[in-house]
Amino acid sequence: MEPKAVSLEMREYIVEMGAETVNWCMQCGLCTNLCPWRLVPGETSEVFNIRHMQRLGQMGMEGFEDETVLFACSTCSMCQTNCPRGVKIVDNVRAMRSSIVGGGMVPANLRPILGSAHANGNPWSGARENRTAWQEGLNVPRFGTDTEYFLFVCCHSCYDPRSTRVARSIVKLLEHAGVSFGVIGAEESCCGESMRKLGDEELFQKLAQSNIELFNGKGVKKIITTSPHCLWTFKNEYPELGGEWEVIHYTELLRGLLAEGKLSFPKDLGKKVAFHDPCYLGRHSNIYDAPRDLLGGIAGVETVELGRKRELSLCCAGGGGRIWAEVPMGERFGELRVTDALESGANVLTTSCPYCLNMLTDACNSLEKQEVLEINELSELLAAGLP
Fold it and tell me: How many helices (H) and strands (E) would you count in the chain?
């Protein structure tokens, strides 16, 4: 085997791009053992090894930049939350991607995604003026100086026909509870979380600065997010750029309203429901109880827990830009999740993330189990249970 050259310059560049902890890794291999790619067969599973990727980054050696390796990670944080050295593996992956994407070497399948975010303010190739099309038939209030909460609807739920039902359900729930909320509209841009995880730092900064100027200019103080990805980036990445607000996921807000008696779900749904913990709501943001408390408040809902739950929840594979990846049947994490739900005896698998909704629905369809397992988003169940 031909020896590979060690490049101190490349190593330092990766560190400068944000991989400050890459040299903490002692190569114990726990990250690889916990990685969901170990649970499925296929080419990506064979070539992607997060421990090896960290090692290549440590040494500045060739190999980590291979598309199948570099962009396989779904940033689920299963490895990071269990790393005995506290290595910020997700940041290291992002930094390695930035070192490549920043040099103009963007994988072909991601160019339209990043290009749309640059041109339209969203990665879904939707016209900016259509960002509010999901509101059709609803009287969604506009955010004003007297509005308490700004409702930030994820790009996915603005443009994806299936996911728009999530935004509409959340609006119905907030209105029913008498929450003072409003949207800004077409001027809003993607939060940029997935764009940054894909390594396009320049694009993330552009989107973030645009949103920060817009939100601050409108007098935003509190934000409700529909997506855990928006929640995470607004809370953890925007403050250092000038975006400091009180940010809450819709499940946290509704859980409080349920406890205060401002919301109730008396309509008997007669369903056996399993909840899938999204990585960005669970491991990244440590929110596990709010969605479960809400589920427990719906009449006629029997809840069952999946074997892989809470901190050990199985990733749907939609994070880190993987929602735009083409993955062959039989190699999808979501198919394992659908199987988990069926084995639990549930007839509904619900979640509280638009990315998870997308990935689990695709997996259920590919397994042809849509007749026996309903996939939905928690807000849809809650709205169905309203009086």
Answer: 18, 8
